[in-house]
Amino acid sequence: MSTLKNQNLIFLHLPKNGGTTIHSILNRQYNSENIHNIKVVNNSRLSTKEFIELSEIERKKIKLLKGHMLFGLHEYLYGESKYITFLRKPENRVVSLYYYLKNKPNYKIRNEIPIDTLTFDDFVKDINIPELHNAQIRLISGLEHGTEKEMLDQALLNLDAHFSFVGLQEQFDTSIIMLSNLYKWGIPYYKSLNKGKYKETKINPSTLKLINDYNNGDNLLYQEVEKRFNKKKNGAFWLPFKEHQLKLANRIYSSYKLKQIKKLF
Question: Which domains are seen in the chain, by residue range?
């Protein structure tokens, strides 16, 4: 079996889970001619069809595939592939999604809902879109229209068989350090991208219950992955040193002087 370094890597970007920042880290690890992004076309659909219809020559070049997608696109790549993804607690993801839609007039699902007139409570209560209901197990399972149990069971099977790493948005720095250590990428310095600008939202108990009811499968998946993640984290004696390195690297990367130097090139 080939090593992780020799396998294709697929980043399954779950919406509002810190994925844009992860894209920027991944882009530094691969040559641009070996990267293919699944994109939103005309604010209405994903470019999955265009990817599938690429010529054999073009698909053979791809070593990193990333974007919003259902699990399963590894079948169209050449050679062995492994997936990575990041999970987020459903209540945090739903809050982030709400404010993202408020501030992104061109986002593909925004035109489907009257977001400008909706309070957060009404958004959760009245809007029925896949992005609000078990979105994480839906994409990881590849079962777009499965039942909650079907999607959760398949998502767990897929994680065990096809994923080399699953991080947690709530432990972002620790996650990207562990991912970078797995793939020997060095210090994964970054600047936060596409981060929502909103005050911390205190969710009404009744609304929180609705979120958890609608995302029971996502919650169960998160709990299982969090348990596995913390077990690996607790065994990584080198993590505090790496976390210190990352904080220092991020400070330098975001510094004013470095920005001025970059402008010269």
Answer: 4-263 (3.40.50.300)
